[in-house]
Design goal:
The protein is α+β, with helices and mostly antiparallel strands. It is built from 7 helices and 5 strands. The protein has 3 domains: about 55 residues, no CATH class; about 40 residues; about 70 residues, HU Protein, Chain A (Irregular), CATH 4.10.520.10.
Amino acid sequence: MEQYRPLSPCLICILVDSSENSQRRTFAAPLLTEVGHRECHKNPDFLKGVLMANLTKRDIVVKISNETGLVQHQVFEVVQRTLDLITDSLARGDDVELRNFGIFEVRLTKERVGRNPNQPGSNFKIPPRATVKFKSGKVMRQKVSKLSPALKQAQTLKSAVI
């Protein structure tokens, strides 16, 4: 594997060498033989939708800290306070609008009838409750829509390998 490694390691190289997430590593390793490791060096984004993990608060803090030069603890405080403000506003029933990102809206679900599949004939009422709905902004929708072909290709590749 070392013979194909470019100066900047590709996604598969990182995942196979990574000891952080064994599930991603287990999935990435067979791709080296199935797809051919050179393919990931030609087009580093071809498996991005399949292999990338969720973005966590920690990832955000580290990235902002690296880009701004601020201490991670300070960045964490800012991120946490931002999330707390959003949560508090939603808990009061206020909508939160972040331009070009999206709108968080508090909605009340309707009362509905629930059924237990293990006990046929037993119905119960599920009371209405407040939920948060997210409506993406225009810029986010445009950026995410560009992923459609790549995600489709990655999904077919994932189903072929697994």
